[in-house]
Amino acid sequence: MQRKIITTGIILVFLLMGCASQQGMQNDKKWSPIYRLQVGTNKGGIVENTDMTVVGNAGVDAFTGATRRGVNTSGKVLLPLRGNFVETGIDLMYNSQTFTYNDAANDFMGERKLGVTQFMVPLTYSIGILRQNHPEGLFQIKLGYAAQYNLFAVSDGHGEMPDYNTNSFSNGATFGLSTTPFRLNNGRKLGFFVDGYRGTRVYEDFYNRSEFEIPGTSFLKYGIIYQF
């Protein structure tokens, strides 16, 4: 499932690049790289299994998960390519989750807290829209790939909980929308962004096994752009 998502994303990126090439040849203006700082909030992380029918003897509420809103910051560079941009940089994101085990049949009871810090390197193709007064476009739509390095802080409360495994590396498809409509007196710009991600599995335990047909990780993050 995850391979199909990533493959589809890569194919769409190349299709968009092909569609944009003709527009880029008609624009003789050479742009310099664009640099951005971003800060915001995010929702998501580990996507837990909610179908207890695939777990032997487990009740409906044997395992549940809850995700708290997190924070993120990033430094980005937009490099001109065929009239549009390749965007990359480094993202730092943190979120926390709580897994609750209430399964007397399998002798698992208690609460597990996870703090997940993710370092991400996205690589996307960004297409600008409405360029009359904005060389990079008033809006930018982007699609591509992101690689992640994950750091976990796991704390188990009182009770008996299943063993678990985590993956330090993950990857997946990413997409987003950004805009920088506000120009400051110093020539800088302010704007907003929304980014989404769907990627590979980073956590496994008795209720979240590799053979279960559930997604691995996903998030939606949004916030403010300061463009140099």
Description:
- This protein is mainly β and 228 residues long.
- The chain is built from one helix and eleven strands.
- The protein has one helix at residues 2-25; strands spanning 34-46, 63-67, 70-81, 84-103, 108-129, 139-156, 165-166, 169-183, 189-199, 203-204, 217-227.
- An eight-stranded antiparallel barrel has the order 1-3-4-5-6-8-9-11.
- The longest helix is centred in the first third of the chain and has 24 residues, at 2-25.
- 29% of the residues are buried.
Order of helices and strands: HEEEEEEEEEEE
- Biggest sheet, in brief? 8 strands, antiparallel, barrel
Shape by Cα distribution: elongated
The structural class is mainly beta
Give the quaternary arrangement of the chains: single chain
Widest sheet: strand order? 1-3-4-5-6-8-9-11
Give the helix/strand layout.
Elements: H1 2-25, E1 34-46, E2 63-67, E3 70-81, E4 84-103, E5 108-129, E6 139-156, E7 165-166, E8 169-183, E9 189-199, E10 203-204, E11 217-227
Antiparallel strand pairs: 1-3, 1-11, 2-4, 3-4, 4-5, 5-6, 6-8, 7-10, 8-9, 9-11
